[in-house]
Write a sequence for this structure.
């Protein structure tokens, strides 16, 4: 019997464990993760394989550190982006939590440099963005780089291993709830784990599982916006005037035709485009490193659309669009922007003749207009033209568009201001998988907050 059991070894779960061990060092704590330890996480593509093998458990998404382990490790140090914690507590409290978590990252070896702290340094960018009808969100960013991110997560794992029970390579299957009180959970391996408090932090990769469990147990959820789009890749020089000062620019645009919100996400200067596998569906993402550089920069353009009744399956909607791209390409599609505008598919020869070469070599040249709904596709095109006004060259005919990028955090669990689920006592839902956050630092902060709430309660 555990005092606290944590489902998921991403930043939300890790920071729950870090804070609980600090506040209640005598408590018995379990953290269970369906993927591997950080040092054993591998991806065949990273090892030289040219095409995604659709591994049963994706090494890029699952394991200690979660989906962020192999990302470029950007800590966005503001409550303005990266989650919804301000819906549950005062703005200043979220700021304090973010600063607290940032210091923990520093204690475990995070880099010291923070981009975008002085607004005067990028006032001209903000001015140009305003003229282009783009909103630049001020978001100081600490960039770790993939190499440093892995080292930081390994340090956290080493710290926690002697203090709590960590189980890897075991997947939670069913929550055990009796008389509206959480009792624990069972796993696919047939084991049962009991706990007084359970913290569910499955990350984006586990969002579908979480939704099904909560529907089964009649735990209320609401639809978040569905985020579907493409990953843009272009010469690093195009974005260098912006990335050299901001590293990652958070730009929001309301596309004129339909009025839908389009935003930049996960900008990777001198980075690479990568293939990820969500439960058998190939999606695209981007990474960058502290030391390893490519001549390209990539970022996502995501179109947010919030659906109303009777629609209740935003995750399946995103999966369906991504599966269409998989059907046509066997994985990831890539298309030149000029070919998209001309109404023709890109071919290997056209890609080869471009001034920019794809960093994701396994992507198949094709036609994104056969995959993306017209509404999202037109909004992305309009956003590219808006971005071209502040960074000439974005809307070049050679700019590469990869599809599909989808963010699977669309089911938002209804929780109290303490992040406890409504209707089931002692069950806490946090992080990206619960729709509460959508980034590393706020996911970490949600874990700290849940741990503090639990630590104040009386042990049964």
């Amino acid at each position: 019997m555990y005092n606290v059991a944590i489902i998921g070894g991403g930043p939300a779960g890790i920071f729950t464990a870090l804070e609980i061990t600090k506040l209640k060092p005598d408590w018995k704590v379990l953290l269970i993760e369906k993927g591997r330890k950080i040092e054993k996480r591998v991806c065949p593509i990273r090892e030289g394989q040219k095409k995604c093998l659709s591994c049963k458990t994706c090494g890029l998404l699952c394991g200690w550190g979660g989906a962020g382990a192999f990302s470029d490790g950007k800590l966005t140090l503001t409550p303005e982006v990266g989650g919804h914690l301000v819906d549950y507590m005062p703005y200043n409290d979220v700021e304090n939590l973010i600063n607290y978590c940032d210091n923990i990252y520093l204690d475990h070896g995070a880099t010291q440099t923070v981009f975008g702290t002085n607004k005067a340094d990028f006032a001209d960018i903000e001015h140009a963005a305003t003229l282009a009808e783009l909103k630049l969100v001020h978001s100081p960013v600490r960039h770790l780089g993939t190499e440093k991110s892995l080292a930081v997560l390994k340090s956290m794992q080493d710290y926690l291993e002697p203090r709590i029970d960590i189980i890897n390579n075991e997947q939670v299957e069913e929550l055990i709830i009796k008389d509206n009180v959480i009792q624990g959970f069972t796993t696919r391996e047939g084991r049962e784990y009991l706990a007084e408090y359970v913290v569910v932090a499955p990350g984006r990769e586990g969002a579908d599982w979480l939704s099904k469990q909560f529907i089964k147990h009649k735990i209320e959820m609401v639809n978040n916006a569905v985020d579907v789009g493409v990953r843009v890749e272009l010469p690093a020089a195009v974005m260098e005037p912006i990335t050299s000062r901001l590293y990652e620019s958070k730009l929001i645009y309301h596309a004129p035709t339909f009025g839908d919100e389009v935003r930049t996400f996960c900008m990777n200067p001198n980075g690479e485009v990568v293939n990820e596998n969500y439960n058998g569906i190939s999606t695209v993402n981007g990474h960058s490193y502290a030391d390893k550089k490519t001549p390209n920069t990539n970022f996502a353009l995501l179109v947010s659309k919030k659906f109303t009744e009777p629609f209740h399956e935003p995750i399946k909607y995103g999966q369906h669009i991504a599966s269409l791209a998989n059907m046509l390409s066997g994985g990831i599609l890539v298309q030149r922007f000029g070919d998209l505008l001309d109404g023709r598919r890109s071919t290997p020869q056209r890609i080869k003749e471009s001034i920019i070469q794809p960093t994701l070599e396994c992507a198949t040249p094709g036609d994104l207009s056969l995959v993306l709904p017209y509404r999202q596709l037109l909004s992305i095109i309009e956003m590219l033209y808006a971005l071209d006004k502040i960074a000439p060259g974005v809307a070049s005919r050679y700019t590469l568009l990869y599809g599909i990028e989808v963010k699977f955090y669309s089911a938002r669990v209804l929780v109290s201001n303490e992040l406890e689920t409504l209707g089931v006592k002692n069950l806490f839902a946090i992080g990206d998988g619960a729709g509460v956050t959508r980034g590393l630092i706020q996911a970490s902060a949600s874990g700290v907050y849940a741990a503090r709430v639990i630590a104040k309660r009386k042990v049964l």
User: Anything to note?
Assistant: The chain has a mean pLDDT of 91. Residues 2-115+142-223+411-456 form a domain with the FAD/NAD(P)-binding domain fold (CATH 3.50.50.60). The radius of gyration is 21 Å. The CA atoms of residues 424 and 447 lie 19 Å apart.
